[in-house]
Design goal:
about 350 residues; alpha/beta; Spore Coat Polysaccharide Biosynthesis Protein SpsA, Chain A; 7-stranded mixed sheet; 6-stranded parallel sheet; elongated
């Protein structure tokens, strides 16, 4: 199951138009990356909960057949929390172990090894973990020698952390997990289910994926990091072009474009413009004459006026940056959902 029902407030104003599952990484909605990721491990039936801008998600993903899977949607009239949404799909999972991922995960964490460890321990729940040198912005997990979870720390102050292992939001569960989630109740894995499992002494384990790639794209800074890693070739997404220009992109002969720039279909880059990577120029983006783009992400249909300068900036779908504007470290987007 892909958890996709949240309001995506950490990415405002970008997600006032676009729900978080459709936030693009190298021009492709992250939910599509996740579906392909799950399918690569043999998962061909995937549930996904939707609430905020649900129609846009369904329109973009359809029934999943384009990606070789069958999608089953849970439409939440009211948000039920991460665990509450999973509980609502109990009949979908049946008697088998299953995997849950967040829609903001960009990762190559080996799910087969996560599930193998889960089954080896006969666990109720197993959390996928990665190492981070600095953990003050993450949920830290403390393991015993046998991999059993012995404690949590939420965003510990530097120097107080008990572990460098952080929770990725990628989980393996056995059907026994449903005994720990009340029905028809807002319920959260991190705040309620996991502390309850720990207190009850349940078979609750962590899988140390150590050096697997993982990024939570749910904040502007981490979203930029994920995008940079892809276009720089640090993280490779199977089936996704890391950089380079679409065949129908129009780039003026006098424009300068770095190698580590992703340019989408129908994009136009004007005379004497410069695009320095890592950067993404989305489908049908127009960059005016003499504009300077440095380390920025421009979503579909964005327009950059003549002579504008953008550094480390994210520009939302269809947003028009005025001529001669100067933006550094900005996140700009239209407030209304496009029609």
């Amino acid at each position: 199951m892909i958890l996709a029902g949240g309001l995506s407030t950490r990415l405002y104003p970008l997600t006032k138009q676009v729900p978080k599952p459709l936030v693009p990484v190298a021009g492709v909605p992250n939910a599509v990356h996740l579906i392909r990721y799950l399918h690569s491990y043999g998962y061909d039936e995937i549930a996904i909960n939707v609430h905020y801008l649900a129609d846009a998600i369904v329109a973009a993903l359809g029934d999943g057949s384009r990606f070789g899977v069958k999608l089953t949607y849970l439409h939440e009239a009211q948000l039920m929390g991460s665990a509450g949404a999973v509980k609502a799909m109990e009949s979908f999972f049946g008697a088998d172990d299953f995997v849950v991922v967040g829609c903001d995960d960009l990762t190559d964490l080996p799910i087969d090894k996560l599930v193998a460890e889960h089954r080896r321990h006969g666990a109720v729940a197993t959390i996928g973990l990665v190492v981070r040198p600095q953990v003050d912005q993450y949920g830290v997990v403390v393991l015993g020698e046998d991999g059993r979870i012995t404690g949590f720390q939420e965003k510990p102050a530097p120097g107080t952390e008990r572990s460098k292992l952080v929770n990725t939001g990628i989980y393996a569960f056995s059907p026994a997990i449903f005994e720990h989630i009340p029905a028809l109740t807002f319920y959260d894995f991190g705040k309620q289910v996991f502390p309850d499992l720990l207190a009850a002494g349940a078979a609750f384990y962590g899988y140390d994926a150590r050096d697997a790639y993982w990024c939570d794209i749910g904040t502007p800074s981490e979203y930029r990091r994920a995008s940079d890693d892809v276009v720089n070739g640090i993280f490779r997404i199977p089936g996704t072009r890391a950089n380079g220009a679409a065949a129908d992109a129009r780039i003026d002969a006098s424009a300068q474009v770095d190698a580590n720039v992703w340019i989408g279909a129908g994009a136009e880059i004007g005379a004497h413009a410069r695009v320095s990577g890592p950067a993404v120029v989305g489908d049908r983006v127009t960059i005016g004459e003499g504009a300077q783009i440095d380390g920025s992400i421009l979503w579909e249909g964005a327009q950059v006026g003549d002579g504008a300068t953008l550094r480390d900036t994210i520009v939302g779908i269809g947003y028009a940056v005025p001529a001669e504007a100067r933006l550094t470290g900005a996140v700009v987007a239209n407030d209304e959902v496009p029609t």
